[in-house]
């Protein structure tokens, strides 16, 4: 039995610069006003991103024309093309580096994103994703909607083709794709975006454009034996500017060096990158302490310049500073006695309530015809109305599908869950 908790640790916001350029046309007297997006690299610590506008030739070059690819390698996923809120595992023919970790399989979802985590759970939209345009897409509402993927040995292309928003079908269809290269480059390309992405409703499904990664920490629950809780901590997120996503645009993200790429102690401790790298002799691994191997790093008492205090509600950073005690710690020491007094009073109140409940139960058992007994009999659990639970609209849950089902007009229709 496992419980999952998702926690946000670090979020980065991106900025855009728009220029109004006046260009004089040689050979005539008229002037032409052009809106151009300034193409400068945006540093996200783990990636740099560059956005190309509709008039930029790179936007066209980065779009992969699947129709011109080898037909034997282009696959239309029948189940994803005919269902809503489904996800399917896709095996890669190459190692894809994501945040420094090499992946060989991914999970493609109908909602316009790729899940990269090892642990498949109901909240796939929370973290560990590659999202060219995460939204409430439902390929089952149109026969023209398909989810296509193509692997040529050095790149994986996933295309959401003519998909519609389930809660706003009349807006038109969306066509976009994500290309994952073996060198770690990630390209988002957009062909048809019928509305402003920032205006897409997130009531029934999150709307995200960017990347995210997390690490999983296993907690033992002392009160319940043989039960562990897996808590997912998001340590980094890339959020791209939604207003830049229009027809014929593209975003290219280049990976930056991480500690995981160093394979020796000397190269690790002498590295000069954005992270403070440490070498663990027991694991023979270089790390900053923030990656998917966090559990191994802690279990083996590996060195770490940043100690993380993990609990079920937060992640707190405690920096070593010549042994100085933070002000918060001193304040906590002063409040120790009031805290203990309140805890004792709370325990006494709970004991009194339990004692009262026992006495009432004994009284009812020996006096079945009393007014108190009749009151509880009339309100026994068999008379209570059944509580109905349904999936929260703000927390979509994805089911992992298997390649079984019935064919329908050349596609595979998934069986009803």
Automatic annotation (TrEMBL):
| Gene3D superfamilies the UniProt entry points to | ligand-binding face of the semaphorins, domain 2
Task: Tell me what topology the record assigns in the membrane.
Answer: Single-pass type I membrane protein
Q: Which UniProt keywords apply?
A: Glycoprotein, Membrane, Signal, Transmembrane, Transmembrane helix
User: Main site of residence?
Assistant: membrane
Q: Where in the cell is it found?
A: Membrane
UniProt xrefs under Pfam families? PSI
Record field: transmembrane: 343-365
List the PANTHER family. PLEXIN DOMAIN-CONTAINING PROTEIN 2, TUMOR ENDOTHELIAL MARKER 7 RELATED
Family assignment from sequence similarity: Belongs to the plexin family.
Question: What name appears for this protein in its UniProt entry?
Answer: PSI domain-containing protein
Q: Which organism is it from?
A: Oncorhynchus tshawytscha
Lineage runs: Eukaryota, Metazoa, Chordata, Craniata, Vertebrata
